[in-house]
Amino acid sequence: RSSLASMAGELGLTFGVAVNTDELENDRKYRHLATTQFSSVTAENVMKWGPMEPVRGEIDYGPAEALIASAVENDQLVRGHTLVWHSQTPAWLSPDGTETTLTPQQVRDAMQKRVTETATHFKGQIWQWDVVNEAFNEDGTYRRTVFYNAYEALGLPGHQYIADAFRWAHAADPDALLFYNDYNLEFTSPKVLAAEAMVKELLAQDVPIHGVGLQGHLATQYGFPNLQENLQRFADLGLEVALTEVDIRTFVQPDGNGGFTHEVLTPELQATTEAFWRGTLEACLAVEACNSYTVWGVGDANSWVPGVFPGEGSALLWDERLNKKAQFHELRDVLRDA
Ligand code: G3I
């Protein structure tokens, strides 16, 4: 039977998945699914700054290199995630993404080094980089991150760190497509309008930005009323767009073992979940510039959702034992009928 990757490929769409090197190396079934069902991979964690450089100056490229080697062996593209993000920063830089004991100039220098060295190290191996991740608050103001604050303290516009990051990444790896990536862009809000204004400003300044990623972390109690419109919003600026981290969580019953079981979903919630999967993929297929659709993990056992939203889960296409769910078949149907 054809894979998601091959069916999407016939439509010109790359179908991706977020993976972890540990599971790729140690779980046969996981590896089989991750390497046969998908045409691109994103590092769920191993390319983030904190995991890569826990000790200042000692950069551990190993897990990321292993992930890329697996992708090359299996003819998969790689989405690099992520060069600059306020979360999962190394403790020596900032324990919480805001506070720091470094001087503003040291923060800027460290950021330049991080972007340049990482993009240089992986040069030619990364299809798309999420250069900057999650720069906005929900009200459309810029997050006051350690990067933003350092620039302001240097007398620069706080948000200029974003333009700099794209320029440094492009100088290091001119062939990589450079993306801005964020969540809650699936409905129209001050945040999506601010992201649009930022992209226009970057383009007006000739900053090398090539795409915007809508993460697509969705929940069945909220909708995604403007997903297609907002993909089109960025496409209309001449950019590529992508759904970069899709998962769709719903209410599940704890199994008493620290996990949960998706079998207890009500038929209504199950139907809503399937309709959400269908709708997100259809939105991407409807927008010419939507070049990839990535799901944020293989099976529910690896999903970040239950840890962050207790009582919610069943957010992925395979269950805790890596059995296919109806959600998987729903996506196949969408691809078959497109
Ligand atoms: O690897 C360490 C381990 O050594 C340590 O003992 C353990 C104890 O806390 O933590 C492990 O690290 C965890 C890491 O995942 C790997 O499992 C971190 O605590 C945990 O915070 C981290 O969570 C990740 C989260 O980003 C961090 O903010 C999730 O796996 C990952 O799915 C999630 O992904 C983000 C995207 O990058 C950006 N968009 C939102 C998305 C969901 O939050």
From TrEMBL:
InterPro entries according to UniProt: GH (IPR017853), GH10 (IPR044846), GH10_dom (IPR001000)
Pfam (any one): Glyco_hydro_10
E.C. numbers: 3.2.1.8
Domain GH10: 1-334
Keyword Signal: yes
Gene Ontology process terms (BP): xylan catabolic process
Sorted UniProt keywords: Carbohydrate metabolism, Glycosidase, Hydrolase, Polysaccharide degradation, Signal, Xylan degradation
UniProt KW Amino-acid biosynthesis keyword: no
PROSITE patterns associated with the record: GH10_2 (PS51760)
EC main group: hydrolase
Substrates-to-products reaction catalysed: Endohydrolysis of (1->4)-beta-D-xylosidic linkages in xylans
Highest rank taxon of the organism: Bacteria
GO molecular function, one term: endo-1,4-beta-xylanase activity
TM helices/strands, residue ranges: none
Family: Belongs to the glycosyl hydrolase 10 (cellulase F) family.
Name of this chain's protein: Beta-xylanase
Species, as recorded: Cellulomonas aerilata
